[in-house]
Amino acid sequence: MVLLVEASPAVRLPLAESLSGDGLAVIEATSGLEALHKARTFKPHIVITDLYLPDLDGLSLSRALRAQEFIRDVPLIGLVGRMTALAPLRVAGFSVILRKPCSSRLLLERVRGLLDREPSGGAVCR
């Protein structure tokens, strides 16, 4: 199960469609607080989040998720519009950082790799 956190429907809906079309169950959230609630409820296997969210940004969301034992080790993919200041993202526990807009194919490759427990090495994809 994938938790996809993105405020913009123009970005979220095509990504959700691509992920579900590849056979993955997708739970959507449009804000950081909603994502925290859905993470507790659904216990996803992977979280994909934009960094710029209403009410709780992706960096704070990552820290809040990492503080929860039930989701501490779940892979996190960060979606960013600008590739600046990557060090805080790595410290916050992101497994992969993808630059938006990212192709559905690239996102699916990264998700499948993380779900199969292939080492990501904290990859940054431009």
How does this model look, in words?
- The protein is an alpha/beta fold.
- The protein has helices at residues 9-21, 32-42, 58-66, 87-91, 104-115, and strands at residues 2-5, 26-29, 46-50, 76-80, 96-99, 123-125.
- Helix 1 links the parallel strand 1 (2-5) and strand 2.
- The protein is globular.
- The two termini are 25 Å apart.
- Residues 118-126 have low confidence and may be disordered.
Q: What is the β-strand count?
A: 6
Main sheet: strands, sense, barrel: 6 strands, parallel
Mean pLDDT: 85
The largest sheet has its strands arranged as 2-1-3-4-5-6
Q: Based on CA inertia axes, which overall geometry fits?
A: globular
Could you tell me the strand content as a percent range?
A: 15-25%
Distance between the termini: 25 Å
Give the SSE string.
EHEHEHEHEHE
Share of residues in helices? 25-40%
Give Rg in angstroms: 13 Å
How many helices in DSSP terms?
A: 5
Based on helices, strands and strand pairing, what is the structural class? alpha/beta
Which regions have little confidence, pLDDT < 50, spanning 5+ residues? 118-126
